[in-house]
């Protein structure tokens, strides 16, 4: 994957526990283009790689902007960004990739939960620019935790956005069943945020008759897995025929790494799709939030950063 060296041109506190970082080329040249919903991989101080959605106007070529929530349960990514990255620092990033693209629609509903606003902010900017019909609902715990609130209020599409705060009156909270009451074929829904928020939207949409192809989502983190029943299994590398043991307390990525076989990873939670590997034989125990149920049923690829095997051996296309 191509790496790009960028400088932190600006760091700004956008809300409580949320900081944004404006990234530019050190020589001021243009960055690779991107589309609404794109993300980049960032090499965080401490050796970790993490994904962050781009939340500036996709028409801009001189900068990328990301926003990072300080997570109290951080495994080092958000803590590293908040504690160790300052204006003037240099970071290595990937070119933008998009697993959460906008599709053409007669009408678009954007539903953001907390830091999940970042890709949806970019989408709102794009939809406003092309004159598309859309509305946005932005749910946070409180006004002090609402990143980009002033920016949205000052935009020329502010009237299309409703803010909903957990600590305010019940009347202003998101009435999801009302918002999703009319599942018109030409309307598409985009949702991003904590797992519980996304699941609430998806289950409500399904119950109200929305088609699966109308509801688009992007998770920012995986739910905790019950690993008490995990057992060892083996993976076989198709190109060499070599077989390796995966212990009950390690991932496929970790097991292969011990033998010099590297699989590119990013989120390490089965959210981003960076590590996707083809499966030639065996049944997977899918634990990701990336694949759809139909894709999992095909059993021809999996995320070795978190998923395991239901059979004794998985043969991988490596």
From TrEMBL:
The keyword Flavoprotein applies. It comes from the Bacteria. Residues 1-103 form the FAD-binding FR-type domain. Keywords: 2Fe-2S, Flavoprotein, FMN, Iron, Iron-sulfur, Metal-binding, Oxidoreductase. InterPro entries: 2Fe-2S_ferredoxin-like_sf, 2Fe-2S_ferredoxin-type, 2Fe2S_fd_BS, Beta-grasp_dom_sf, DmmA-like_N, FAD-bd_FR_type, FNR_nucleotide-bd, MRET. SUPFAM superfamilies: 2Fe-2S ferredoxin-like (SSF54292), Ferredoxin reductase-like, C-terminal NADP-linked domain (SSF52343), Riboflavin synthase domain-like (SSF63380). PROSITE patterns: 2FE2S_FER_1, 2FE2S_FER_2, FAD_FR. One of its GO terms (molecular function) is oxidoreductase activity. Residues 233-318 form the 2Fe-2S ferredoxin-type domain. Its cofactor is FMN. Pfam families: DmmA-like_N (PF22290), Fer2 (PF00111). PANTHER family: CARNITINE MONOOXYGENASE REDUCTASE SUBUNIT, NADH OXIDOREDUCTASE HCR. This is Oxidoreductase.
